[in-house]
Amino acid sequence: MTEKFDSVVVGAGPAGIAAAYTMAKAGLSVLVLEKGEKPGAKNMFGGIIFSHHTEKFAPEFWKTAPIERHVVEYQYWFLSKQSHVLLSHRNQKFNGRYNAFTVHRAKFDPWFARLAEDAGATIINRTTADDVLKENGKIVGVTTERGNVLADVVVAADGVNSMLAKQAGLREEIPETAAVLAVKEVIALPKQKIEDRFNLAPEEGIAALLVGFGPGMHAGFMYTNRDTLSLGVGFGMRDLDQSKQRPNDLFEQFKAHPSIAPLIKDGELKEYSAHLIPEGGYNYVSNVSAAGMLVAGDAAMLVNAINWEGTNLAMTSGRLAAETVIEAKKKHDFSERSLHTYRQLLENSFVLQDLKKYRDVPKFFEENPHFFTEYPETLNELFYMWHVVDDETKATHIKKMKDYAFKRRSKLGALKDAYHLWRLFS
Amino acid sequence: MSTQRTLSITDKLYRNRYKVDEESHLWIKDPKMCLKCPFDFACIRVCPTDVYKWEENKITITYDACVECGACRIACYDVGWTNPKGGYGISYKYG
User: Fold this and answer.
1) I want to staple A215 with a disulfide (CB 3.0 to 4.6 A). Which of A243, A246, B48, B55 is the partner?
2) Is the CB of B92 less than 8 angstroms away from the CB of A44?
3) Among B4, B14, B67, B69, which would you mutate to test the A interface (most chain A Cβ atoms within 10 Å of its Cβ)?
4) Integer-rounded Cα radius of gyration of chain A
């Protein structure tokens, strides 16, 4: 087949579908190529999707979309070897106005893709785009095993490993310091057990981040679905490499932690998955436009690791890419200069504003891993010392706590950390 | 299967759904480089699904276990990595 479309979108994830939907709505001819047997077949995340951004495509989508639970509580776990400190925020406002939903991507993505199809886009599954087609320095389409597809603009939404962005020269390989390897298990438990263990009403769910486990900058995540838990660990690739430990071994240690094990007890493993997350932030965002091509979502490394956000950045970048193509189509100008508007739209939106705000955060934590290792341990020990009862006076206890804390981290060091954190986020 | 006992990767992968191609989408670009690997066999170590093994002085690749995460490729530039042919490879039921 050699057919010509206004746009060919590579990848039927949130970024690609948002782009395809928006362009099809505006009357453009759109072809979406998906390498998996269906949308979502290759996709894995924590994780949650966000109501605000999903509603831009389908108001009150939770009435029809295959969602799992809406999040009513956000938990931050600080683990030590045999203890944890838990900071948690539950709010009934999340029952009145849904903020985020846990989903399984292999179920949610096909539903989302249907929106684009209903808007007039064509989706072809089981088709890998192998390379970009160039003509006079411009990208004019993609090659696939079934033939070439021509388009005025290629939207590369082919995920974190984007072959197209690299072939177009817009991106380098992700360095180890900017990549997180997420390994996850989907663990089945009866609905009632999940609700009992997490103190949830039907439909309600939690989202949790767990730090302080294992060597280096690793963070666990846990999400409640209808009758499964999504439990995983994000490994900083550089720390994982240097630790000389295997991801599955570290993951099994995490699952065996005395604070985690009871939560997954008697659960049945349903799926074991792994995926890279581009967490380098603003400094690693790829070039997003070339003559005849735009890059969106993970392919452009648009992930806000601080606020656990990704799918919303994907949907928004896909929509902004589409708006750029729609304008370019009006002028019939698909040059680099014309399509560069996309970068401006991203810079003006929360997508790059947020990443820019946090631009120094990834490097800071990389250079200060004690936030993930020593601090959680210190915090646990201090809580223990505060609560343990014996014959010593409270004055002695408090002195011991101070001595312990400042032995772990000097007063100056702690003061510096507080100052740097303040600077990073203000 | 209870998750209380430690599961091996083989136990885990048994739960996944794959459509296996006859050809590998992974390869070693220069097998000679592996003989004096400068990365302490990072491909073997970082892979979450045990795709890589060192057998008889070369890296062997069990590509049918691959979940296409890309970790090996980031850890070592000698790893050749491409997408499986359309419809092949891992096919998540949950994701």
Assistant:
1) A243
2) yes
3) B69
4) 23
Q: How do the pLDDT tens digits run along chain A, 426 residues long?
A: 568 999 999 999 999 999 999 999 999 999 999 999 999 999 999 999 999 999 999 999 999 999 999 999 999 999 999 999 999 999 999 999 999 999 999 999 999 999 999 999 999 999 999 999 999 999 999 999 999 999 999 999 999 999 999 999 999 999 999 999 999 999 999 999 999 999 999 999 999 999 998 777 789 999 999 999 999 999 999 999 999 999 999 999 999 999 999 999 999 999 999 999 999 999 999 999 999 999 999 999 999 999 999 999 999 999 999 999 999 999 999 999 999 999 999 999 999 999 999 999 988 988 898 998 899 999 999 999 999 999 999 999 999 999 999 999 999 999 999 999 998 888
The residue of chain B nearest to residue A253, with distances taken between CA atoms, is B6
Phi, psi of A12 (to 5 degrees): -100, 40
Tell me the backbone φ, ψ of residue A369, rounded to 5 degrees. -65, -10
User: In angstroms, what separates the C-alpha of B50 from chain A's closest C-alpha?
Assistant: 9
The distance of B54 to chain A (nearest Cα, Å) reads 15
Q: Which among B3, B9, B46 has CB closest to A240?
A: B46
Range of the domain at B71: 17-90
- CA–CA dist B18, B87 (Å, integer): 10
Distance CA A294, CA A323 (A): 11
A24 within 8 A of A307, measured Cβ to Cβ: no
Cβ within 8 Å, pair B69-A45: no
Q: Indicate yes or no: CB of B95 within 8 angstroms of CB of A161.
A: no
Q: According to the CATH classification, is domain A177-278 in 3.40.50.720?
A: no
